[in-house]
């Protein structure tokens, strides 16, 4: 009886250790997506994107959150690695931007990471200019 208990406890511990290792290496250290090479799930204007979030944030999250999207709009603010479209869509780039594109209509592809209610901006990450 004692031997049977020892085998069961050992098996349970091995399963727990295996699950921990899988989670640690399989989930935490999963390779990041290459957004630049992905086809966009949606192509929208900056005004429509912010309009969707203002109308119904939960529905907009269901559509856009963690999806690759293309956003077209007028660049209204620019720093070294950020472009803001139509004063409402915050686009963060991995590298510093080389060309000044402020006040031009551009299309940016990136991953939507959500709506910032404090600044009333949609945040886009891993951006690239199309």
UniProtKB/TrEMBL annotation:
The keyword Transmembrane helix applies. InterPro entries: Protein_unknown_function_OB (IPR024422). The chain crosses the membrane at residues 7-25. Keywords: Membrane, Transmembrane, Transmembrane helix. The lineage of its organism: Bacteria, Pseudomonadati, Bacteroidota, Flavobacteriia, Flavobacteriales. This is tRNA_anti-like. The keyword Transmembrane helix applies.
